[in-house]
Amino acid sequence: MSTNLLSTSVATGFGGVVQEYLWNWENQQLRVVYETLGKGSPLLLLPSFSSVSTRLEVGELAKLLAPNFQVVAIDWPGFGESSRPSLNYRPEIYQHFLEDFVKAIFNTPITVVAAGHAASYVLQLALKQAAFSKIVLLAPTWRGPLPTMGASQQIAGMVRGLVRSPILGQALYKLNTTPSFLSLMYRRHVFTDAAKITPSFIEKKWHTTQQPGARFASAAFVTGNLDAVHEQSDFLELVQSLTVPLMVVVGESSPPKSREEMNALAALPEVRSVVIPGSLGLHEEYPAVVLEAVQDFLFSSEN
Prior knowledge:
Structural class: alpha/beta
Number of helices: 13
Distance between the termini: 35 Å
Strand order of the largest sheet: 1-2-3-5-4-6-7-8-9
Oligomer: single chain
Strand content: 15-25%
Low-confidence stretches: 7-11
Helix content: 40-55%
Radius of gyration: 18 Å
Largest sheet: 9 strands, mixed
Order of helices and strands: EEEEHEHEHEHHHHHHHEHEHH
Number of strands: 9
């Protein structure tokens, strides 16, 4: 496993140094793209999992953090500019990847800011080893869209199998990643200000979804195959077992079921929490508000 510098003309980022981390999984080498910006103590910035997941969704937040931190933001394996092979994407892949990446890139416990579905993976690694000194979770989730809608594991598995199939799967995936569908999803669950969901914004998101191999990890997320825990009690137990300071940022307009889960997490006595405008994409829609909400926690030596 190694890291290489990438030409900025090859990769599209948010103004940092773009590199690749070559990572082996089951005798297959994956190219994982990450970007570093700023100077100071290291901070790992993890985007959420979604069909449109890329490090660019945390790019504006990275730029706001960069004056005080050396920010490292990644494209998860299977998403963004990282390799998108037709793996059976499941929690073990991301658990091992995150552990190996943190070990390879950082030599001291670091601050981590994680959005959405990245929450469970961060919490699990924090309990396994002293990887993090502080944890911030932005609109944390632990259950994928189909299970949240009530789909059984059997139904979700059938959908995942269909999307993975060569011809029908490509057609189904394209139907569920049209610009109009992406715009609808953003209006319903991700952003709260419709004026920010411009045609050019959606076009960039659509372009991300149309990369070769994009449907495999996306289908895994949507159908719950990237859920690292399967019960609320298991998710809350991860938090209750933590010895690392934790802060949770909740979007006041989050979908009802997701908001219930966030409220349960925020209610734990050892958790610092704040409610700000936004929904599941609050880190992208309101990066300055996010920074204002968490900066005291990040800069304080006592939490």
